[in-house]
Design brief:
The chain has 569 residues and is mainly beta. Helix content is 4%, strand content 40%. About 7% of the residues have low confidence.
């Protein structure tokens, strides 16, 4: 990786620094030897800028957001692979990221460089900007003036929209035509990348889709040329090769004249009796419900089969239901289902009364799965949404006569890891670390060598405070993982301790009786912000010269709410 170039706006001196963390002593222009498209995220931590590349590398620019007495701040420029300089523009008052604008050279951003008395002339800075470290040396050896912008005009023409798009019948491949050599990207309706490839010399492409698209999914296909220009998207609809699920929630009225239930919206539901004779059909509504008139009425305990067929002709497995027997009604409730097991939070298996329907409801009473018990007494049904985080479930079986068993309480196994910890902050001196996590989970902090330097349990309100031993040092990288009581571990978070010292936390906090005003103490001149439990800013103010502050809260907080109060220097 080439060196990082720093041009000081005050002294007009340009210096080079090896790739890695840097610290600005005064406002300047930072030139990063990477293209903007290599950057994954940029974040502000205090006065520091954290740059994370798509490769996973991180660079901290200390004091990047600091301004001098004249209100002058720092700028940063990224170097494209073709030598283009991209000036990253941002809102210093409320940083949310960068927008990029190309510039000819750094002297557009560093006033005075190239004038008499400057440590490095304009042509050297331009050469350094365009070519990196090697370019700077070559420019210095040339002994001449003038910038080295050179080269041909950039390619700014996007490829044409891909055409002749077609998804294979098995949903595994997508073919089409487009600009030769361009990269094909295929995304689903949610924007997920499900396939990519390259257009061949003959203009055709054939891309594998993962997962296969076999249920009328709408797909978007774009082409990106070597200069990074992206075409307008082409669209294609995948084939429907997926059969509907078997109809559920089947019921027949006492007169045997009407059968109701749920099926795939828009599918045609058919009821067949003895010998496969069709007794009635109907189309499931937008909510999946259907009602079928049976002709003739079924009142002698007949075994009926109900199936659904979608518009593409795919037919579901048949669901069974027994018609009422008006002469010998069944009033005996079945036993509770047994031998329950839940795999991956989705597939529930067990044993029950043959022909009965097993129903699963969540803690709110919502039906999240149902299925018929087979003739051998076994059943297998799918839960939607998946239950994989210790949820309490209500499971019962209902026989053909409508008799329901006593509900069985079942707890889904917790196989879901917690989310990564958030809102990490290291206190003054590096002796303590705070943040947010899953209540009851254990947070473990390790240094760059993998040594545990602190751990603690997340409190019921979702916050944690951990003592660090030894203390964390500025610029040190820490690794944080939280593990829930079931042993599921979150994704590790890599946290870089800021190069600048964070102010002391606000203290002496108090809220008045009506919840409209919060008072306290914080470092003089710091901005104090109050956030609710959702992270929403509900009030802020500057600490007075004596360190006191008073903040109006909107909305008022008078019902035991959890608030975060931070000081920003």
């Amino acid at each position: 990786m080439d060196n990082i170039v720093i041009a000081d706006k005050q002294s007009e001196v340009a210096t080079q620094s090896a790739w890695g963390n840097i610290n600005l002593n005064a406002p300047g222009v930072v030139q990063m030897p990477v293209s903007p498209d290599k950057v994954a995220t940029v974040t502000q931590r205090g006065q520091d800028l954290i740059i994370t590349l798509k490769s996973g590398e991180k660079v901290t620019v200390g004091n990047f957001f600091a301004v001098d007495q004249a209100g002058v701040g720092s700028d940063i420029v990224f170097v494209g692979e073709d030598g283009t300089l991209w000036h990253a523009q941002y809102d210093a008052a409320a940083f949310t990221g960068f927008t990029f604008e190309d510039v000819a050279s750094l002297d557009e951003l560093v006033a005075g460089i190239g004038t008499a008395g400057s440590a490095m002339p304009t042509w050297a800075i331009a050469g350094l900007s365009l070519l990196g470290v090697g370019g700077a040396a070559a420019a210095a050896d040339s002994g001449g003036g003038g910038s080295s912008g050179g080269g041909s005009d950039p390619d700014t023409t996007a490829p044409a929209t891909p055409i002749d798009l077609l998804v294979s019948p098995d949903g595994l491949r997508l073919t089409g035509r487009g600009e030769a050599g361009s990269t094909v990207n295929i995304r689903d309706a949610a924007g997920n990348l499900i396939g990519s490839g390259t257009v061949g010399a003959d203009g055709s492409f054939n891309v594998t889709l993962n997962p296969p698209q076999i249920n009328s999914e709408n797909l978007e296909v774009t082409l990106t040329d070597g200069a990074g220009n992206v075409s307008a998207p082409g669209t294609v609809t995948a084939p429907d090769a997926t059969a509907p699920l078997a109809p559920t929630d089947l019921a027949i009225n006492e007169q045997g004249t009407t059968l109701t239930g749920r099926a795939e919206p828009g599918s045609t539901v058919s009821v067949r009796g003895t010998g496969g004779v069709v007794l009635g059909t109907a189309v499931a509504g937008a909510d999946g419900q259907f009602s079928i008139t049976l002709q003739p009425p079924q009142t002698d305990g007949q075994a009926l089969e109900v199936s659904a067929a979608d518009a593409a002709g795919n037919t579901s497995p048949a669901a069974s239901i027994t018609a009422p027997d008006v002469d010998n009604p069944d009033t005996s409730a079945p036993d509770q289902p047994t031998d329950l097991a839940l795999a991956n939070g989705v597939t529930l298996t067990g044993r029950g009364e043959p022909g009965a329907t097993v129903q699963v409801r969540d803690a709110a009473g919502n039906l999240i799965g149902s299925g018929l018990v087979n003739a051998d007494g076994t059943f297998s049904l799918a839960l939607s949404p998946a239950q994989a985080n210790g949820e309490a479930l209500d499971i019962r079986q209902v026989d053909a006569a409508g008799n329901s068993s006593i509900p069985l309480e079942f707890t889904a196994p917790d196989i879901t890891p917690p989310d990564a910890v958030t809102d990490i902050l290291v206190g003054p001196g590096g002796t303590a670390l705070s943040g947010r996590g899953e209540p009851g989970a254990t947070v473990e902090v390790r240094d760059a060598d993998g040594n545990v330097i602190g751990s603690g349990v997340v409190s019921a309100n979702g916050t944690f405070l951990i003592d660090l031993d030894p203390a964390a040092q500025q610029g040190e990288q820490l690794n944080l993982v939280q593990t829930d009581p079931s042993g599921n571990a979150s994704v590790a978070v890599e946290y870089d301790v800021p190069l600048t010292t964070a102010p002391d936390s606000p203290s002496n906090l108090a809220i008045d009786a009506d919840g409209t005003t919060l008072t306290g103490s914080a470092p003089a001149g710091s901005r104090v912000e109050v956030h609710d439990a959702n992270g929403t800013l509900i009030g802020s103010a500057l600490a007075n010269a004596d360190g006191t502050f008073s903040i109006e809260l909107n909305p008022a907080q008078a019902n035991g709410e959890l608030l975060d109060v931070v000081a920003i220097d």
